[in-house]
Amino acid sequence: SPLTTAAPGKLSVLDVAHRGAAGYAPENTLAAIDEADDRGATTVEIDVQRSKDGELVVIHDTTLERTTDAEEVFPDKGSYDVGKFTLKELRRLDAGSWYGKEYKGERIPTLGEALDRLRANGLNLLLEIKSPALYPGIESDIAGVVARNPGWLAPSGKRGADRLIIQSFDWESAERSAKLLPSVPHGLLGTVPEDEIADYAEWADQINPSHTKLTADYVQAVHDAGLEVLTYTVNDRSDMRAALDKGVDGIISDYPDVAREVIQEH
Ligand code: G3P
Ligand code: CA
What we know:
Blueprint: E1 14-18, H1 30-38, E2 43-50, E3 56-58, H2 70-73, H3 87-90, H4 111-121, E4 124-129, H5 138-148, E5 164-168, H6 171-180, E6 186-189, H7 197-200, E7 206-208, H8 216-224, E8 230-231, H9 237-245, E9 250-253, H10 256-265
Parallel strand pairs: 1-2, 1-9, 2-4, 4-5, 5-6, 6-7, 8-9
Antiparallel strand pairs: 2-3
Helix pairs in contact: 1-4, 5-6, 9-10
């Protein structure tokens, strides 16, 4: 599948807003996607999981307590795994107030809603399949939603680069997804041992390690195998500069406006 290429006049390195712009709005909400657009991101990273009744929902943790009011709304549930709640139940939750009272009423978005909002903003998507072992078959659910929503298999959004990239820490899940969506680039989160990169290069397009694990030699080895490197979660200017010095192709940050500035200055 095609590698990302920046068009003339666009950023040379992808500026990826982590969980939406999580530094400025409640993560993985439509408000965070709008904030990412306002802050000049090229791409938004969000996490996808699945409800009890099979709907794809955008949320990071596999439990609801940290970013919603689930304990107040469902005091008798006892445990709060995302996959134990129907979409109707999840939609009752407030996913904004924990971050700030001005975000009261933000909901856990469905993947379809997130796609609509990203498209409205002309943003590209870096979609993380979160904890897929909990959701057998989620890769084909994702492929179905992507295929049903127009435009996501097209080559480019407003700010260039690929419209959609799919990634996971679960490399077998990423491979299943790559087989279902062969025209979509796929990334492996984490650090693939150097002697295994060539094998993964048969179907993967990116290796996306933590910036704390990154060396220039590692980035070079990934590039030599024909893959790209996006690195997470880079929030300090000095760490952004260090990642750019090592040759990364994208910076995933809670502060995409800061990343944009550092990329432009570099
Ligand atoms: O995109 C990479 C990054 O999101 C991975 O870590 O825990 O924020 O999903 P996490
Ligand atoms: Ca993520």
